[in-house]
């Protein structure tokens, strides 16, 4: 089943009088959403009791949980101390995910900095492998790490780099942020064919099983020559990309991803809009008597 949900909490959640993320699962379920990405982007500050309560509420409302690790992780740093701290940040996030029963942890792999990109990539690969080793030793091996495609040119996180990292361990699933891909390509996703090429590239790299259950981020993104500048709402159609194109490809390939919306301040509302767009596309396919081509649903 395909799932839609927000990255963090919309402004409206707090405007309605809610104060704690433990109330998000019921709030989202009442909206018709089924996923939630808890944000540890500025640090892992959630207590064990709060995390466990959030997890219990998510399980009761059938909300798929993921956690976003801190933004300041840099697995490619030339400084050993910073790499070791980055591993620690991931492990801390995995601990919080374990408490709440979250299935996935989204991670940034870092930046190239002033050094050589190839050397930075090799350093990040080595650090990621050590992270996986330590995570397994601590009992976190059942939580999926999801390296994210990043939006700025100087970040280590092109589609190709992330897919190469995911080849290191079959448990890794990429976080494909289509807004970041669009920005990184300076407006690269403009048609169904553009999205389909991305999906085929992923399938060729890591196989259909992981493709089918992809972790995705989606929002409209403003960009400059350096890549991503700012996330916008789905209704800000002066910016791309268009979710309708991706929805067609998801249906065609019989995929069942988790799609997390990162629209600025309105992520839950826009996640619902993405769900509506997908369901309208699916209804159109059924009405026209078309079948998904490629892989059939199990």
TrEMBL record:
<dbReference type="GO" id="GO:0006284">
    <property type="term" value="P:base-excision repair"/>
</dbReference>
<dbReference type="GO" id="GO:0008081">
    <property type="term" value="F:phosphoric diester hydrolase activity"/>
</dbReference>
<dbReference type="Pfam" id="PF01261">
    <property type="entry name" value="AP_endonuc_2"/>
</dbReference>
<dbReference type="GO" id="GO:0008270">
    <property type="term" value="F:zinc ion binding"/>
</dbReference>
<feature type="domain" description="Xylose isomerase-like TIM barrel">
    <location>
        <begin position="26"/>
        <end position="266"/>
    </location>
</feature>
<dbReference type="GO" id="GO:0003906">
    <property type="term" value="F:DNA-(apurinic or apyrimidinic site) endonuclease activity"/>
</dbReference>
<protein>
    <submittedName>
        <fullName>Endonuclease IV</fullName>
    </submittedName>
</protein>
<keyword id="KW-0255">Endonuclease</keyword>
<dbReference type="GO" id="GO:0003677">
    <property type="term" value="F:DNA binding"/>
</dbReference>
<dbReference type="InterPro" id="IPR036237">
    <property type="entry name" value="Xyl_isomerase-like_sf"/>
</dbReference>
<dbReference type="InterPro" id="IPR013022">
    <property type="entry name" value="Xyl_isomerase-like_TIM-brl"/>
</dbReference>
<dbReference type="InterPro" id="IPR001719">
    <property type="entry name" value="AP_endonuc_2"/>
</dbReference>
<keyword id="KW-0378">Hydrolase</keyword>
<keyword id="KW-0540">Nuclease</keyword>
């Amino acid at each position: 089943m395909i799932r839609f949900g927000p990255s963090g909490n919309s402004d409206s959640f707090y405007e309605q009088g809610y104060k704690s993320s433990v109330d998000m699962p019921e709030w989202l379920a009442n909206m018709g959403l089924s996923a939630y990405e808890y944000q540890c982007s500025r640090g892992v500050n959630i207590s064990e009791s709060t995390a466990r309560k959030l997890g219990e509420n998510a399980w009761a409302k059938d909300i798929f949980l993921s956690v976003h690790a801190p933004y300041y992780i840099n697995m490619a740093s030339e400084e050993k101390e910073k790499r070791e701290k980055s591993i620690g940040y991931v492990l801390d996030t995995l601990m919080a995910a374990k408490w709440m029963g979250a299935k996935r942890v989204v991670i940034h792999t870092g930046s190239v900095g002033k050094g050589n990109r190839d050397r930075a990539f090799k350093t990040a690969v080595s650090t990621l492998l050590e992270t996986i080793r330590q995570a397994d030793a601590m009992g976190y091996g059942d939580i999926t790490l999801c390296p994210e495609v990043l939006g700025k040119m100087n970040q280590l996180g092109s589609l190709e780099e992330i897919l190469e990292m995911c080849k290191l361990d079959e448990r890794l699933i990429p976080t494909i942020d289509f807004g970041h891909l669009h920005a990184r390509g300076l407006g690269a996703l403009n048609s169904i064919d553009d999205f389909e090429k991305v999906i085929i590239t992923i399938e060729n790299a890591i196989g259909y099983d992981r493709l089918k259950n992809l972790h995705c981020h989606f929002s409209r993104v403003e960009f400059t020559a350096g890549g991503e500048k700012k996330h916008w709402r789905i209704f800000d159609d002066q910016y791309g990309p268009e979710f309708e194109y991706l929805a067609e490809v998801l249906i065609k390939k019989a995929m069942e991803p988790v799609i997390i919306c990162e629209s600025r301040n309105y992520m839950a509302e826009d996640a619902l809009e993405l769900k509506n767009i997908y369901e309208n596309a699916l209804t159109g396919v059924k009405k026209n008597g078309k079948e998904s081509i490629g892989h059939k649903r199990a």
